[in-house]
Batch of 2 targets.
Target 1
Amino acid sequence: MLKNLNRFQEALCKREQAGTLRTLKQKVEGVDFYSNDYLGLARSKEFQNILLEKINKNPQLLSGSTGSRLISGNSKVVAFTENFIAEKHQFSSALLFPSGYNANLALFSTLPDRHDTIIVDEQIHRSVHDACTMSNARKLKFKHNDIQHLESILERQTGHCYIAIESLYSMEGDLAPICEIAELAKKYEAALIVDEAHAFGVFGNGLVDQYGLQDRVTANVITYGKALGAHGAAILCNDTVKSYLINFASPFIYTTSAQDFQWMSIKTGYDFLEYHKEFSILLQENIKIFRSHGLESPSSETSPVQSIIIPDNQKLKSLQETLSKEGFLTYAIYSPTVKEGTERLRICLHSFNTETEITRLTEAIIDFI
Ligand SMILES: Cc1ncc(COP(=O)(O)O)c(C=O)c1O
C-alpha cells in the first residue's frame, strides 16, 4: 500500500507542478458560461414548480427503487417513460440508465464481442474508451470528423465493425458529418452508434431525429443531464438490442435502479420543452451574438459550446482567472484532457445569457489575447 501511496503522491505532484491538478471547488457566484444547462431548465422556477406539484401528489417518487430493474426496481414510471421516449424519437425501444456514462459503458462493453472492432472518433467521450477497455473487442481511432480516414480503416477490416461518434462534440463544439458517416456504415455493414449528449434539446430531439436516421443507427444515446436540466440517459435501439442489453450488460444488471423521481423528471422535461420552444430559439440567438464578435474558434456556428484555443496551459489558466475575477464562469481544458497544443477555454452559451454579458465576455477575452 505504501508503495502505491508514493506513486499516487508523485502523480499528483506532477499535476500540481504542471498547474493541472484537479480539485473540487465550491460553486461561486458569477455569470454562467460553463454549465451544460444550455436551455436553463435546471434553473427554471416554473420547471421546479411542476416537479414539486408531481411530488406532492405522489411522494413515493422520492423513495428508493429498492432493487435492480431485474428484481424489484422495475416501476411503472420507468416502463412508461421508456415507452414514451421510444415513441418520441421514433425508435422501437428505449432503455433508461441513471447517467450517460453508464449508458455508454453498457453499450460498448456489451454489444461488440472479441471478434469485433470498435472504430471511434479520436474525440469520443471518455465513457466510450472506458467501455472499450471493458469489452473484449479491438479499438481503433479515426481522425476527428475525417470520413476519408474512417473509410480507409473500414476498408481494411474483415470482421464486424462498430463506429462510435457524437453528433455534437463537447470539446471542440463541432458537428459530425453524420449523414456521410451513416452512408459509410451502410456501405461497410458497420453498426453506427451516435451519442447525442450535447445535441439533444439544443437541436430538437437530436440530429439522428432531425436527419431521419433512426433506421441507420444501431443505437442512439440521449442524455438528460445537459439541455434537459435533469439527470440520466436513454439508449434508443430496436427490441433485440434492448433485450440483449437487459440480459448481458453488467452496468445495467448489477445496480439498483434510480428513484422514480429521476424518470418522472425526464418525462416532465420532454413535456416542458414541447411547450417552451422559445428556449432553443433564444439559445441560437445568443450563439449568433457570440459569433458576431469574431473570436477565432473551431466550433460550429450553431453550437452552444464555443471553444477558444489557447495552446499554453499557463496562459490559459491566467485567462480563465482574469475572466473569473470579472464575474464570468468559464472552464479551461488543459492537456492531457485534450491534446497538447490544443488546450482551450470552453465557453457554454445558454438561452438565459444576456447580450450585455456575452459582449462583455468576448471583449474581456479579446483584451487578454
Ligand atoms: C458526449 C458525452 N457522452 C456521455 C456523457 C456522460 O453523460 P452523463 O454526464 O449523463 O454521465 C457526457 C458527459 O459529459 C458527454 O459529454
Note: The chain has 14 helices and twelve strands.
Target 2
Amino acid sequence: MKLRRELLTARGNLSPEQLRVNAVKVRETLLDQPWAQMAGLVACYWSTGAEPETHGLVFALWKHGATVILPVLRENDDLDWAVYDGPDTLAPGRFGIMEPVDTRRGVDAIRTAALVIVPALAVDRKSGVRLGRGGGSYDRALARVGPNVPTVALLHDGELIDDVPAEPHDQRVRWAVTPRELTRLM
Ligand SMILES: Nc1ncnc2c1ncn2[C@@H]1O[C@H](COP(=O)(O)OP(=O)(O)O)[C@@H](O)[C@H]1O
Ligand SMILES: [Mg+2]
C-alpha cells in the first residue's frame, strides 16, 4: 500500500536525536494521565526501528509498580503475551523483535489489561481507525479488548491523519499520542 510506504519512508528520515526527543514527549504525556498512572496491568509493545520508542515507557511503568505484558509474535501472526520483568528478561523473537522470556500467558491475556498501548503507522483523526504494518496482529489483539479500556496508539507528528483506509476487520483506538498532543478519538 502506497500510504504505508510513504509513512515508513518518513519514519526512516527521523534522526536518532528526533526519535529520542519524541520518545520522551510521548512518555511524559502518557504518564501524566491518571488513567495511565492507575493501570495495574498494562499491555504495551517493545519498539523496534523508527517506531515510537517504548523502552523508557515500559521501564517507567514497571518501576512504578505496574505489571507490563509485551507481545510474543506467534507463527500465525497472532499475539501471545508475556510479562516484562526488567531489561534483562528480553530475548529476540521472530523478526528479531525483543520479547519477554517469561511464560506465555496466551492470546487472551490482553483481555485483562487496564491500559493497552499499541504501535501504529497512522491513525485516522476522525474515526480512530488504526493502520498497522500489514500483518493484522493488532487487529486480532485489539478485538479482544473490552469497550471501557483505554487503547492508545503511539505516533510521530504527522501520523494522525485524515482518511485512513479501513476494512471491516480493522480495529480503532480510543486515544492517540504524538510528541505534540494527546487526542481522544472515540
Ligand atoms: N481478526 C482477525 N482474524 C484473522 N485474521 C485477521 C484479523 N484481522 C486481520 N487479519 C488478517 O491480517 C491481514 C492484515 O491486516 P491489515 O489490517 O492489512 O494489517 P495491519 O492492521 O497490520 O495494518 C488481513 O488481511 C487479515 O487476513
Ligand atoms: Mg488493520
Note: The pocket of adenosine-5'-diphosphate (ligand 1) is lined by residues 131-136, 138-140, 143, 169-170 (CB under 6 Å).
